[in-house]
Amino acid sequence: MRINPGSHQTLGIPCAAGELYEGFDEEYACPILDEDRVVDELEARMSEGGVIVDYHGCDFFPERWFHIVFVLRTDNSCLYQRLESRGYTGKKLQDNIQCEIFQTLYEEAVLSYKKEIVHQLPSNTPEDLERNLDQIMQWIEQWMKDNN
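C-alpha cells predicted for Adenylate kinase isoenzyme 6:
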C-alpha cells in the first residue's frame, strides 16, 4: 500500500511482518493475504480520506473507500519480460499473463465499483509511467479543489 504527496497520508501496513497473512501458497511461492484483517487494519485510516491505495486487486475493498480507481495495463510482451525478470516462472507467470489477456483486474474493478470511476492506464514504458503519474496528480489536485 502506498500513499503519495501533498496532504495525503503514508500507510505503513505490516504485511511484510506477517501480521496480515493467513498462510503461504506453495504453488505461487507467496504469502496469502488475510483480506478481512487488511480491511480491519485500514478502516479507520480510509475513513479519514486522502489515501491512495496501491494493490493488485480490489474486490475485497469496500466501495465507499474510493473516489477513483486506476487499473494499470501492460502489453503482454512487456509484461512477460517484466515478470520473468522478477523470477516468475511456470504457473505463476502464465496465470499473470492470462490475467492481463482476459482483463481480469479491469473487469474486477468494474464489477466492484461504479464503472465511471474506473480508468485504465497504459504501463509499458517509463514515459507511460510519467504520464500516469501526471494524470493521477492532476486528478488529485482537481478533486481537492472540488472537495475542499
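Residues 1-11 have pLDDT under 50 and may be disordered.
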